[in-house]
Amino acid sequence: MNPFEYRDNQLYAEQVSCAEIANAYGTPSYVYSKAAIEDRYRAFEDALQDWQARICYSVKANSSLAVLSLLARLGAGFDIVSGGELERVLRAGGDARKVVFSGVAKRADEIRRALLAGIYCFNIESLPELDRIEHIAGEMDIPANVSLRVNPDVDADTHPYISTGQKENKFGLGIDQARELYQRIADSRSLRVTGVDCHIGSQLLDLAPFRSSFEKVFELVDWLEDRGIPLRHVDLGGGLGIPYTRADLAPAPVQYARAIEPFMHGRQLELVVEPGRSIVGHAGLLLCRVEYLKSTDEGNFALVDAGMNDFMRPSLYSAWHEISAVHRESGEQVLYDVAGPVCESADVLGRQRSLCIRPGSLLAVHDAGAYGFTMASNYNSRMRPAEVLVDGDLARLIRKRESIDQLFADEIIPD
Ligand SMILES: *Cc1c(COP(=O)(O)O)cnc(C)c1O
User: How many whole angstroms from 200 Cα to the centroid of ligand 1?
Assistant: First the structure.
């Protein structure tokens, strides 16, 4: 489904006009479609229905309490990478028993809190982390469920910053080391083997790297079974891409499931997946307003009120996002670099975009539901955007725009 469509040349989010949202809540603002998030979650649910499967939504993609609460009510589990994300899940009404905890540098206090909350399992990324969790679990007398995140050493063929499954990356354990550690976990009084996991990267548009990693993971599952260490679940991570450009062809959850099928066939294992972007990416856009149109000898800039601090993907990953005028006019189209107010030349949301706009026009940066707000910062002392969730003909503010007071609430000027 496309939750953002034009009617009479005006962009709508479900049944609400984006211009109305901008007038009510200001710009820049993130706008999410509830129906689109539900639709994508259900697409995963349907695709995986042949197995005992759990969808652990990756919280870092979009961690708004309203979004987490919506997913919790649909029955989702959660993949977290910090103690802060755990608190968000709990605050949003998520079930700790459906939480998997990933991340390479879990602190002792985060581990303690997760054990107390009763999370489903820790995804372990190194030997010293395993040592630390075993020690803390022993001290607290709460056995820790653990899964080893293996690094299958496959090229995910995606941007190097979001590629995580090659041996030179900091993530996961080599398969040989994992074999040794499973034996040790099986013998530990404070640890329980629950599964194995992998996550090779993000924004994968091809199923081949997934298949290569599944092969290695399931080989390990068989090897462990042969040695009397049966697993309860296999967690295949996240990473399914979405189309950002018209040329991108992204596999649907059902095609992803078909890639899993040969490996799961005939097994009693539970299946866990950790999709983030593919659930929320398409469900959000960033509304901003044109402040100035500036022409130089080299070309034209549309200078807008959203910058790289609000939406980092174009600057950080050279990511391409469609940008369109909220009110489509029939005048002359001009090529613009759409740039933000931040004092960095990297602060460009999109280059060479053909638009018919004037100062004051509203623009929508599309497919910004994932890794949008969650990566926003206060750089240049800019207040982070508001967030709005649309449900049918209702637009609700789910996060107020940050205020000046909040901007320095925690700062101290020494006497
Ligand atoms: C980021 C991340 C995900 C989600 O990745 P997407 O590309 O958003 O689906 C899943 N698992 C782990 C361990 C991650 O770090």
Answer: 9
Are residues 165 and 198 in contact, defined by beta-carbon separation less than 8 angstroms?
yes
Q: What is the CA(170)–ligand 1 centre distance, in A?
A: 15
Q: Determine whether the shortest distance from the Cβ of 276 to ligand 1 is under 6 A.
A: yes
pLDDT band at 156 (very low <50, low <70, confident <90, very high): confident
Peptide bond before residue 28 is cis, with ω within 30 degrees of 0: yes
| Three-point CA angle 270, 275, 280, nearest 5° | 145
Per-residue pLDDT tens over the stretch 104-151: 999 999 999 999 999 999 999 999 999 999 999 999 999 999 999 999
DSSP three-state, residue 167: coil
What is the Å distance from ligand 1's center to 240 Cα?
A: 9
Residue among 71, 274, 367 whose CB has most ligand 1 atoms within 8 A, to mutate: 274
Confirm whether 343 is a catalytic residue: yes
Q: Tell me the pLDDT of the chain averaged across its residues.
A: 96
Between CA 218 and CA 159, with CA 107 as vertex, the angle to 5 degrees is 55
Domains present along the chain, CATH in parentheses: 4-32+283-408 (2.40.37.10), 48-276 (3.20.20.10)
Q: What are 172's two structure tokens?
A: 């996961």
Across 86-125, b (16+ Cβ under 10 Å) vs e yields bebbbebebbbebbbbbbbebeeebbbbbbebebbbbbbb
58 CB near ligand 1 (under 6 Å) = yes
